[in-house]
Every structure is written in structure tokens, then in C-alpha cells.
Amino acid sequence: MSAPFAERLAPYRQRLDDSFARWLPTAQTYPARLHEAMRYASDGGKRLRPLLVYAAGEVLGLPARALDAAACAIEMIHVYSLVHDDLPAMDDDALRRGRPTTHVAYDEATAILVGDALQTQAFHVIAADDASGIDAAQRLRMIAVLAEAAGSRGMVGGQAVDLESEGRTLSLAELEALHVHKTGAMIRACLQLATLAAGERPPAQVEALDHYGKCIGLAFQIQDDILDIESSSAALGKTAGKDEAHLKSTYPSVMGLPAAKVRAAELFESARESLAIFSDAAEPLLWLSRHIEGRDR
Amino acid sequence: MSAPFAERLAPYRQRLDDSFARWLPTAQTYPARLHEAMRYASDGGKRLRPLLVYAAGEVLGLPARALDAAACAIEMIHVYSLVHDDLPAMDDDALRRGRPTTHVAYDEATAILVGDALQTQAFHVIAADDASGIDAAQRLRMIAVLAEAAGSRGMVGGQAVDLESEGRTLSLAELEALHVHKTGAMIRACLQLATLAAGERPPAQVEALDHYGKCIGLAFQIQDDILDIESSSAALGKTAGKDEAHLKSTYPSVMGLPAAKVRAAELFESARESLAIFSDAAEPLLWLSRHIEGRDR
Q1: Which of A276, A281, B47, B92 is the most buried (most CB within 10 A)?
Q2: Which cofactors are named for this entry (chains A, B) (predicted)?
Q3: Which chain B positions have a beta carbon within 8 Å of A144's beta carbon?
Q4: CB contact burial B24-50 (16+ within 10 A = b; e otherwise)
Q5: How many CB pairs under 8 A join A and B?
Q6: What percent of chain A has pLDDT over 90?
């Protein structure tokens, strides 16, 4: 653990790929086309959410093995949400992670089912991975927390509000509520799952990680709004300029681009400040917050 | 428990409605339109799957309280699957439970999100309902079994094969594989969840209930194929004659209507025979098998 977290990105991404290989049926399993499409949709991506889970685990002194199921489940939920969000009836996007979206590469019905089955599998992984060393009561709480974050009072609720809000100018409070649900809840859950995997911890540590998660979650979405304006589709691997095309309210549209950048920077800084309680052990999450802050896609 | 099971249908349906009222956010909860649509989609229906869970619980001597979460979760998965199956990209149906389908009553994006959130909530219910008296390890197994039945190797896989098979003539073996996945897995899971809620039981009892579940599951889908031909849309509360319109292989189309009826009757009989091991305690599941066998919708 003495090497900087940056050196462990590749091994952690490999662990995640191994988890997906283990928990997704092979592309030969009946029904083959569906399983092939599930693997297609799951390929690539920044894997930021699993990295947050693993980094939080390091801060809490957990072995990576204790976090594999949570990291995999979080990413499966994330991938399913991308597949459904890209559907014609939703954001109607043809490009994701630099490749055709699932409903373009396959068809719309398959994309709906791919998302459905990836969500199911996320809960299966936490329920069935009994080599994590985490006791059953904690794993149930992890499932409950993941479901809260992913469901109608979290991510899916945020997506519903996002679609309802197209063409309407939101207040800053409305926009923040939208972002906190749509993106923030799942990023916050990364930290919460790691905390639950660690069992009993001092409330101040739990609160510090939760504050970090809330700040990073909102900052991440403000950044997304900024990147949608400032980056190209080629750099993003998805369609740029979408928010304006869909008449979406964003932090830059509501408060102006410079103020949005200041707000994101403040949130990243607040996230880092909350980690002081962990002193040197905080390095993985400190590094990751800077890594996220510096991203260009 | 001495009154016949028929007298407990209404109380059990009420328990289920109470569970939905408890576990679905109110129609005023943010985002209100999504939660209203989730409640719209969840209204009505035969509630056969929850009744199977409760009936199996009675046969095993469990209090209804131990089965509320499983019954609710199974029905939430079922409702989500209907909402998604009815989408234009899937079976494209405008009528369900005698009312406009969710994407007709609301819109397509909302229907996708309603299904997504109902699935999430199903897992949340089992994870969060800690008043069931069932220990955490068993509840994890229940979540794993539900996920297996609902996922790509169960219900969603069956739906994928069903869509791929339109316009193609299936062999009887292919058709049975489709039905066992699409409808059978979730009905079998009703029995499996009740068995898990009961904790350790003699293997012969576990196997008897599993056999009952497998037979009822396949018989139910064969019946659906028959009803699609013989019933009217008004009686079904959903569009009749869909299979022929979609060029779907069905038991009647593959083996002929009379042979399909014989096959269904054999399966119902085989389901009942497996219950002999429970002697008089088998009444709820015996009654329910006859009730299902006699249904006209």
C-alpha cells in the first residue's frame, strides 16, 4: 500500500474485468445473443465508480477481495443505466465509449433487455459472492443501499426529472436536486458500500467518507455539464453538445460557465478536506479526487 | 388454517396491496410523476405469483409475515416485466389488465424508468424488510434465487428468445426451453422463495415443491398460449390473438390445440401428485393449482 494509488489503477481495472468475466454468463450461454450484447455493453469505460469503491476500501484498510462484489455491482448498475439512457425514447444517442450504443449495435429490444438483466445481475453479485468475508447482515445492508441509490428516489428518479425538464429552465435548487439524484446518489453509494463492507467504524469516519461521496458526486455532474460544452465527441467517446441540443438546464446554463467551474472546484476541495481525519491513509481518495478533477472525458 | 384456501385469497391480496403501499413511494414523493406511474403500473392483476408464495408458506407452516417481502418482490419483478414487454420495441401492446399500458398512459421513457425502478425496489424489499423473522443468510439466498429467475438465464433470457423467435417455427424442445425461461423460472421461484423462508427442510419436501413449481410454471404458459386463441381481449384484459399476429410459435401451433390441452392437464396433475408428501397440509397449493387450471384470463 505504500506505492501511490495511481500505480494500482490498472490492477483494479483488471480485478473489475475479472469480476465481469466471472459474473456475466459467457457469450455462448443460452440465449447467446443477449449475453454477447451484455458483454458488448459492459466493455470499456472509465470505471471511476469501482475505483472509488477500491480507493475507499484502501482508506479503510480493507483487502480488495472484500470490495470486488460491490465494485462489480456498482459498475453493472452504471452500465445498465447508460444502455437505457441511450435508448431512442430517452436521450437517443448513437455513440458511447467511442462505439455504437447497444441499441444501435444490436436492436432496441435487446438493449432494453441487456439493461434489465445487468441490473438483476448487480444484485445477484452481492447476494451470491460469499467469498467476500463480509457477514450476511452487512451484505443485505449493501443491497439495500445500492437499491436506494439506483431506484426511483435515486438515479432512476433523477433520470425521470431530467427528461421532464427538457426545454424548461430550472432554478439552481431544482438543478442541484436533479444532479444529486441522477449522478450523485450512485457515486455516494460507492463510498457507502465500502463503509458497509468495513463493518463498525467511528461515526466521524463514516460521515467523512459520506461527505466526500456527496461532494464528488455533485462535482462530477457539474464537470459533465462543462465537458459537454468544452470537449469534442471524439474526446468524450460520446456525443458532445447534447445538453444544448436537448434544451437541458445545466450548471453552466444556469450560473454561467466560470461560476460552474468555481463551484466544481469548491466541491472537489471540500471533498478532500473531509479526509483529514484519515491523515496519510487518505492518499487513494485524495489522488482519485484530483484524477477526476483533471479528467477531459 | 382450517378454512379452505379459497377464503384467504382476498386477505392475501390485501396483504400484497399493503406491501405495495408500504414499499412504493407515495405518488407525491419526488419525482411525483414517476411514482404515480409506478403505482399505476402496479394496480390490479391476478396476483397469482404472490398467492403461490403464500400458499406454499401455508403448506410449510409459515406465518404470512415471513412471506410478505418475497410475495411483494416477486410481484414487483412481474409488473416490471409486463411494463417493459408491452413497450413498442418489444411486444408493442396498448392494453394490459383492462387499461392502457404504462407507455400509453404516460410515455415510453417513463415506462422504461417505471420498469427499471420496480425491479430495483423488488430487491430492496427483501434486503430491507428485517421484520420477516428470516435470518440474513437466508434472505441473501432469496435475493440470489430471485435474481437467477429474473435475469438473463431466466425470465429476461426467455423474453430475448421469444423476440428472436418471431416468424420462425420452433421445435417442441425449443419452445419448452423458451417457456421454461420466460414464465417458468419466476413461477418456480415463488415456491423456492417460500422454501428458503422456511429454513432447513427435508430434501424430499424441497424437491416436491420445486417439482410443483416447475410443472405449474410450464402449464401456466401453455394455458396462456391456449387462452390467446380461445379468449377475447375483453376477457383477458390484454390483447387476444397476439401470438398469431406476431407469428409466434406456441404449444397449440407446434403440437395442435387438443394435444396442448392434454399436455397442460398432465402438468397440472403432475404438480398435484408431487404434493402427496404433505398429505392434508397440501390443500392451499392443491386448491391453487385447480384455480389456475380453471382460469379464463
Answers
A1: B47
A2: Mg(2+)
A3: 124, 127-128
A4: bbeeeebbebbbbbbbbbbeebebbbb
A5: 163
A6: 87
Which residue type, as a one-letter code, is found at position B273?
E
**C-alpha cell at position B243:** 401470438
- Domain with residues B8-288, CATH architecture: Orthogonal Bundle (1.10)
Cβ within 8 Å, pair A84-B120: no
What is the complex's ipTM, to 2 decimals?
0.96
Is a pLDDT exceeding 70 seen at residue A51?
yes
Give the span between the Cα atoms of B242 and B126, in whole angstroms.
35
CB contact under 8 A, A160 and B38: no
Each residue's pLDDT tens digit, B29-83: 999 999 999 999 999 999 999 999 999 999 999 999 999 999 999 999 999 999 9
Average predicted confidence (pLDDT) for chain B: 95
% of chain A exceeding 70 in pLDDT = 99
Q: What tens digit of pLDDT does each residue of A145-172 get?
A: 999 999 999 999 999 999 999 889 999 9
Of B113, B123, B147, the CB nearest to A160: B113
DSSP chain B: --S-GGGGHHHHHHHHHHHHHHHSPPTTSSSHHHHHHHHHHHS-S--HHHHHHHHHHHHTT--GGGTHHHHHHHHHHHHHHHHHHTSTTTT--SEETTEE-HHHHS-HHHHHHHHHHHHHHHHHHHHH-TTS---HHHHHHHHHHHHHHHSTTTHHHHHHHHHHTTTSPPPHHHHHHHHIIIIIHHHHHHHHHHHHHT-S--HHHHHHHHHHHHHHHHHHHHHHHHHHHHS-HHHHSS-TTHHHHTT---HHHHH-HHHHHHHHHHHHHHHHHGGGGGGGGGHHHHHHHHHHHT---
Grid coordinates given for A13:
481495472
Q: What percent of chain B has pLDDT over 90?
A: 87
User: Pick from A116, A124, A150: which is nearest to B84 by CB?
Assistant: A116
Start-to-end CA distance of chain A, whole Å, equals 28
Cell of A192: 457507502
Contact B120 A117 (CB under 8 A): no
Q: Do A31 and B157 lie within an 8 Å CB cutoff?
A: yes
In chain A, which residues have their Cβ closer than 8 Å to the Cβ of B177? 30
Residues of A in contact with B136 (CB under 8 A): 135-137, 139-140
Residues B215, B218, B224, B227, CA torsion sign? negative
Q: pLDDT tens across B191-250, in order? A: 999 999 999 999 999 999 999 999 999 999 999 999 999 888 777 787 878 888 888 899
